[in-house]
């Protein structure tokens, strides 16, 4: 689904990501760990194609296409969606309208989606304007529900979200990915198996989200270098006990 | 940049003091029409563009002036009076006391012209206690090349009444040059509400000089919306509102778009004279090559008054945006604030929407439309589409 090869990324003249290699096969959920400033968000922004993140060498492949130089909206239409860590507010633009824009050509019931994200009361507010931290996350998830991408990039989806809403968030992510028990209850086993599964890359510091979603693999980003790839819970355990630096030392 | 600003300001000032030479101050008279169904469809279309509908649907009354003649006036409601100002002066002896009370005839050359060579204007009055449900519409239209049109309007919202007026100003499509001077005096009596929406759609070289004074008594509210989306040669206005009673309220919203060659010098002055008075001035301005001066002035003269000014301007591609918010407090215990911002669309916002699958052009127009969306109550329904239209045209200029 997603394949990153020897990717080097500069921001404002500084190399932030160094020779990143990462592959997320179809249907897999990968977790990205790393200390503050290690370059996690930078990696997501680069996958999405935001300006200011200059790819100086390497490639990004998605669904077999080289998207390294592709405009943002084409990547989105090809099936990549991001929940941003710090989304901008847009004055005068109603959240309701953005959600239907996210759906593109697909028909969508905004109210119904908003109910899933516990966000009905916010539909008539300006997008992200004065949203609380947790509300911002739900707004992002609601937009992704409408967009329904094949690869979801989630940048700290649970940070600042209260306990009840974390449960909800887990459900939304599972719905987005077509995974989880609830999702399976809704569909027959055959329908479920025949459905194309979606992939995800999830950034988390706390690991809380791992209680709600099934992670296939975890990675550690340290100083712009991906240094470890193994079971996500194992990595989390390591980081908790020994810290990132030790984690980095072990890998190298 | 600084030099350019100064030069530009000087040019504007000079321009405001006197009209370009060569206008004529009379036009051929037009016959009064009892029924509007015989109006030239082309003219009717121009009027509809500024919110004036000849079918009179969803309107309590209609006034139409073409050049120097009243073409039509009538109302379907006994709660409101609407007629040409000269007829109104004959009807009501007392009306003369309302003329030139809020605007001095000696204010400038334009007011003098209106005093010396008056060309009608409208008189609209909601009777005491009347709740006029549907808006009253009025249209001031210029069809004669090179005409200098001087109208004098008086609006009175009597005690405890409420009325919404939509005024559309336009010129014939072919018109090249012209001058419009409108002296307007609005009286909002005790506990009355006047909701006034003005939509301008002048020609590319027309000079426009509204001169407006508004007097609001205790508990009264004036809400004034101003919309100018199309090219105009030059516009200069700065209505002065006196909040002359306890708890009087003024709210001004404006939406301005200045294409190349267009000069908009607009603002609003509110004088808060009594405790509890509140004022809000909000403007959203976009230049795609023209010059916009967005002024706002609040003068707090009593304790416990509250005011907020908000000027936001976008420069798409080129043009000059000059936001001038001014606050004056003359006593302690006033609460006044302002927020002004001039800039371009934030690239992060564009890319954020692109990440949702919108192409760049759609992302920009979505943001611009949001920027212009100030949640104005009571705009005529066609206006949202007009804004969409202008935004997409603007975009082609800007990208
Ligand atoms: N636009 C920018 N200008 C300058 N430096 C930047 C810019 N964007 C990112 N950086 C720098 O790049 C580094 C990586 O930032 P990034 O946001 O990717 O970190 P992160 O791993 O997501 O951290 P966190 O866990 O705090 O979210 C940081 O040192 C950051 O300051
Ligand atoms: Mg980050």
Give structural notes:
The complex is a heterodimer of chains A (252) and B (399). Chain A is of the alpha/beta class. Chain A has a single domain, classed as 3-Layer(aba) Sandwich (Rossmann fold), CATH 3.40.50. Chain A is 37% helix and 25% strand. Chain A has helices spanning 40-48, 72-78, 95-102, 110-116, 133-147, 163-177, 181-186, 189-194, 232-251; strands at 2-11, 14-24, 29-33, 54-62, 65-66, 80-83, 151-155, 199-203, 217-222, 225-230. In chain A, the strands form two sheets. A six-stranded mixed sheet of chain A has the order 6-7-8-3-9-10, with helices on both faces. In chain A, strands 2-1-4-5 form a four-stranded antiparallel sheet, with helices on one face. Chain A starts with a strand and ends with a helix. Chain B is α/β, with parallel strands linked by helices. Chain B has two domains: 21-345; 346-399, no CATH class. Chain B contains seven helices and 21 strands. Chain B has helices at residues 2-17, 41-49, 85-91, 109-116, 347-354, 360-372, 382-398, and strands at 61-66, 69-75, 80-84, 122-126, 136-142, 148-157, 162-171, 177-188, 193-201, 205-216, 221-228, 234-237, 240-243, 249-258, 263-266, 269-272, 278-287, 291-300, 306-315, 320-329, 335-343. In chain B, a hairpin with a 2-residue loop joins strand 1 (61-66) and strand 2 (69-75). The longest helix of chain B has 17 residues, at 382-398. The interface between A and B is medium-sized, with 26 and 24 residues. The complex binds adenosine-5'-triphosphate and magnesium ion. Adenosine-5'-triphosphate (ATP) is lined by residues 11-12, 16, 34, 36-42, 52, 85 of chain A. Adenosine-5'-triphosphate (ATP) binds at residues 11-12, 16, 34, 36-42, 52, 85 of chain A.
């Amino acid at each position: 689904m997603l394949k990153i090869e020897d990717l080097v990324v500069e921001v404002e003249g500084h190399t932030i990501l160094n020779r990143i290699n990462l592959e997320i096969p179809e249907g897999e959920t990968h977790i990205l760990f790393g200390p503050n400033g290690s370059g996690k968000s930078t990696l997501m922004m680069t996958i999405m194609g935001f300006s200011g993140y200059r790819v100086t060498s390497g490639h990004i492949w998605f669904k077999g296409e080289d998207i390294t130089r592709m405009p943002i909206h084409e990547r989105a239409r090809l099936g990549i969606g991001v929940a941003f860590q710090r989304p901008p507010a847009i004055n005068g633009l109603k959240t309701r309208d953005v959600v239907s824009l996210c759906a593109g050509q697909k028909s969508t019931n905004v109210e119904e989606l908003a109910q899933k994200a516990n966000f009905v009361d916010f539909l008539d507010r300006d997008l992200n304007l004065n949203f609380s931290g947790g509300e911002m996350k739900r707004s992002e998830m609601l937009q992704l529900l409408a967009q329904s991408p094949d690869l979801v990039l989630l940048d700290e989806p649970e940070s600042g979200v209260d306990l009840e809403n974390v449960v909800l968030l887990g459900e939304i992510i599972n719905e987005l990915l077509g995974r989880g028990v609830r999702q399976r209850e809704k569909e027959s086993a055959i329908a479920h198996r025949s459905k194309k599964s979606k992939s995800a890359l999830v950034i988390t510091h706390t690991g809380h989200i791992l209680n709600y979603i099934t992670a296939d693999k975890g990675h550690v980003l340290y100083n712009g270098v991906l240094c470890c790839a193994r079971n996500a819970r194992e990595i989390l355990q390591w980081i908790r006990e020994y810290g990132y630096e030790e984690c980095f030392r072990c890998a190298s | 940049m600084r030099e350019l600003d100064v030069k530009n300001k000087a040019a504007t000032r000079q321009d405001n003091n006197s009209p370009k030479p060569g206008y004529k101050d009379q036009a051929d008279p037009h016959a009064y029409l009892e029924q509007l169904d015989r109006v030239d469809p082309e003219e009717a279309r121009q009027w509809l563009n500024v919110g004036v509908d000849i079918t009179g649907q969803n309107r309590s009354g209609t006034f139409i002036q073409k050049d120097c003649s009243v073409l039509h006036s009538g109302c379907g409601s006994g709660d409101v009076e609407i007629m040409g100002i000269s007829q109104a002066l004959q009807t009501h002896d007392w009306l003369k006391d309302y003329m030139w009370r809020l605007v001095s005839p000696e204010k400038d050359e334009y007011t003098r012209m209106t005093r010396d060579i008056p060309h009608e204007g409208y008189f609209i009055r909601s009777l005491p206690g009347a709740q006029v449900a549907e808006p009253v519409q009025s249209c001031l239209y210029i069809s004669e090349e090179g005409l200098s049109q001087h109208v004098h309007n008086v609006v009175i919202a009597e005690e405890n009444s409420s009325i919404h007026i939509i005024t559309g100003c336009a010129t014939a499509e072919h018109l090249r040059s012209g001058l419009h001077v409108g002296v307007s005096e609005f009286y909002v009596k005790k506990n009355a509400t006047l909701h006034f929406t003005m939509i301008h759609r002048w020609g590319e070289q027309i000079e426009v000089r509204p001169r407006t004074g508004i007097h609001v008594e205790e508990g009264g509210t004036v809400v004034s919306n101003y919309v100018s989306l199309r090219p105009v040669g030059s516009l200069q206005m700065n209505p002065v509102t006196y909040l002359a009673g306890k708890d009087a309220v003024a709210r001004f919203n404006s939406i301005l778009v200045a294409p190349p060659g267009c000069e908009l010098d607009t603002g609003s002055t509110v004088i808060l004279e009594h405790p509890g008075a509140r004022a809000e001035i909000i403007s959203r301005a976009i230049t795609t090559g023209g010059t916009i001066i967005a002024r706002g002035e609040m003068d707090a003269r009593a304790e416990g008054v509250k005011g907020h000014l908000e000027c936001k301007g976008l420069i798409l591609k080129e043009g000059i945006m000059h936001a001038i918010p001014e606050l004056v407090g003359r006593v302690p215990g006033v609460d006044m604030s302002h927020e002004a911002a001039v800039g371009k669309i934030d690239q992060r916002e564009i890319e954020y929407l692109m990440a949702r699958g919108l192409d760049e052009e759609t992302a920009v127009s979505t943001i611009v439309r949001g920027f212009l969306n100030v949640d104005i109550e009571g705009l005529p329904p066609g206006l949202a589409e007009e804004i969409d239209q202008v935004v997409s045209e603007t975009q082609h200029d800007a990208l």
